[in-house]
Amino acid sequence: MSTAAKTIAVPVTAVTLLEDRAHIERTVALDLEAGVQRLRLGPVSALAVDRTLHAELTSGHPATVLDVRVVRDWTPRGPRRPAEADSALRHRAHALEEERLDQEKRRERLQARLDLLGRLATDVLREIGEGAGSGETESARWARELDRIDAERDTYGEQLRTVAARLAALVAELREVQRAMDVTEEEPAELVGHIELTVEAAAAGPAGLRLSHLSPCALWRPAYRAVLDGDSVTLETEAVVWQHTGEDWSDVRMTLSTARSALATEPPRLTEDRLTLKDRTAAERRTVDVELREEEIRDLGPAPVLGLPGVDDGGEARVLHSPAPVSVPSDGRAHRVPLSAFTTAARSEYACSPELSPLVTQVVRFDNLSGHVLLAGPVDLVRGSGFSGRGTLDFTTPGAPVELAFGSRDDHRVVRETEETRDTAGITQRTVVTRTVRLSLSRFSPPGELGERVVVLRERIPVSEVSAVEVRLREEACSPAPDAVDAEGIARWDVPLPPGGRRTVTLVYELSASAKVAGL
Q1: Which is it for strands 360-367 and 484-485: parallel, antiparallel or unpaired?
Q2: Strand partners, 412
Q3: Number of domains within the chain
Q4: Which segment, 78-92, 115-129, 228-242, 256-270, is predicted with the most confidence on average?
Q5: Does residue 225 belong to any structural domain of this protein?
Q6: Which structural domain range is residue 50 located in?
Q7: 0.70 exceeded by the pTM?
Q8: Are 438 and 496 part of one and the same domain?
């Protein structure tokens, strides 16, 4: 079996991002020899999952893959200059290390100069001794030479002491910086992976190879940007991608999936569910227990979650594709990948539910014309004045209505007051609870503002589920009567407000219960 000495590069060509990992695909053209041979491919990410590694020859070359495996090597991290995104501590440590090397070189030069001056002084003293023994008297020249040597030795000695003091200070500061880096920063292990591929070819020739494997440390989440421009809205769908797999993705085909490959696929176990009947007691027959509960009205999609712990796909795996090749560096930071954008007509209203909030909010409704589902995620809201805030977009199917709130109006105020009276009829012994809700709506407009603004007020009325409790809207006492009341008990008023105008809306309804009702 022959072993190739040269490492063959296998770049990443396609990536399928799952909720918490990535399926990476690589393609490369091989020049095979006849017989069994072992090829070394790479480098690849050391985080590649071994059991998911799969190799396949794509061309019609008569060859067979005998074995494929990931081999990891420890490569010491060589000296390198800090990158622009590195921390200030790392930049400071690099500057101190460079200055320390410069000071050490200067110290060596000064020490060499002092050694040379010492040998020169020895030669001058030897010359003085030999001259005095032979009767020569050049005391002026000898004194001049010794004075010059002593002056230079003092100068270079002082410089050497300054360099030594600076070196000691640099070493102490570098030690402190290194200790701080050890506490606050962790140097990642420099592991490099390669793929060893063993193939058997019946004849020499070119062949195409496709490699695929799973890799952790990669994920994505949906994000949106909604731009409101008059009566139209533009919704841009993006994918926020993070990856720290150890290798950069350059111009890859990216697919985004909500499949959860880590979840178990076993069906739930069936257990017995026994139903038993029992007779009601006499006290239970005489009374009807009721209670007030609040229910959230929803049209579609599961309950919302705080933040983005996972991809909300409505219970069915969804697949989205990037329209253009994507490059994502392995830096662990968020990178936005555009997916789609559409512009459509929007219906806008100023809505307020005083029981929940006294703010008047601009609500925009439009249809999902993106051609794909809109997964639940954050949405950046932009209107005429620029960025106005961030909201949440719920799971929406293609063609379904979308509702976004573009912030509250500071020039509107709503005050809510409630009253409740309780009375008991003498003959029927029915309990009647009368509730009155007053909504005071004001508009504070600057000078010169014209035109009315319609504010939609919504107030809820209880809905009875038992015949023993009746709820009745007293339209004759309402001022004005609601424009509409839906099946969920939501009363609606369309209140026009001129600049600086004020309106008061009164809602009156009754809850009537028989004498055997308890808990009201």
Answers
A1: unpaired
A2: 443
A3: 4
A4: 228-242
A5: yes
A6: 12-77+189-215
A7: no
A8: yes
